[in-house]
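Recall from the previous chapter that SMILES is a line notation for molecules. Here it describes magnesium ion.
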Amino acid sequence: MSEIIAIASGKGGVGKSFLASCLAISLAALGEKILLVDADLGGANLHNFLGYKFPPTGLYNFLREKFKIDEIITKTDVGIDFIAGSGDVLGMAHITKAERQRFIDKVAEYDYKYVILDLGAGTSYNMVDLFNLAAKKIMAMNSEPTAIENAYGFLKVAAYRYIERFLAADSSFQDVSRRLRNKSVSYKGLDDVVQAVREVNPDKAVEIDEFANAYKIGITLNMVRFKKELNVFYGFETVVKKYLKIQVEKLGFIPFDNKVGEAVRLMQPFYYNNRSSAVAACIDDIRDALLKKL
Ligand SMILES: Nc1ncnc2c1ncn2[C@@H]1O[C@H](COP(=O)(O)OP(=O)(O)O)[C@@H](O)[C@H]1O
Ligand SMILES: [Mg+2]
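With both inputs in hand, we obtain:
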């Protein structure tokens, strides 16, 4: 069974796809069998980071046409297997839960050590649920206030949904579940959720606390130009731990480097071609932290 690694962000453009492509090649360099999937359903462009101008046969062909998984897996020359997305197909942003599950179940049958999902930005059901089902969850961000705020928003939605699924089987928590789903009058933090659950059933409140405690994410900071930006990391970790009560591991940071954009323009996989760069060294650190801490 493959282990799923999901890379999410609240805001787009923080470097998820870049990180996903580098991390995949970096893990493959350890000798692991890796499948990288473009799961940014509405805005697929991961192929650009692997040197393809246009996406090869991919997810769309499996979900909406009669292609088998084998037929949509591209063997790249950078040591990983790849499933491309198809961002310009109307309707692909809204695949159904059944379609999503069919894909995940099929992929799990293969003997990949890790399946890396490059998710799209934002809190759509598909992105949140794919994030939650991953064994290793990475939240990518940069130090812009909007990226931080959206990262927190994504985590809150994901953690609340995780709890809501846990409560779903018990109809006495209908009201709590409804409030967890409702973004505008939602609970401020996990303490409020636990309190609401306690009012219905005190035993369950203890379970929720333990359940939330087992929820663990890794965070990465990209496009770092100044050392003081790293404070963002500490601040984010503190706030998430305080309000959402989930476990947070800082996996590492990636410096800003103009060569990253250049490589995309030249259709070259950055990590593969710049193994001795500072950026690649930081990717390796993130990889090692991911394997050790998550
Ligand atoms: N460390 C970095 N230094 C410079 N540019 C970067 C870096 N990381 C990503 N970029 C650039 O930022 C843009 C957005 O990255 P991308 O991975 O597509 O973000 P996302 O997948 O989160 O939307 C790309 O053009 C990419 O080349
Ligand atoms: Mg992307």
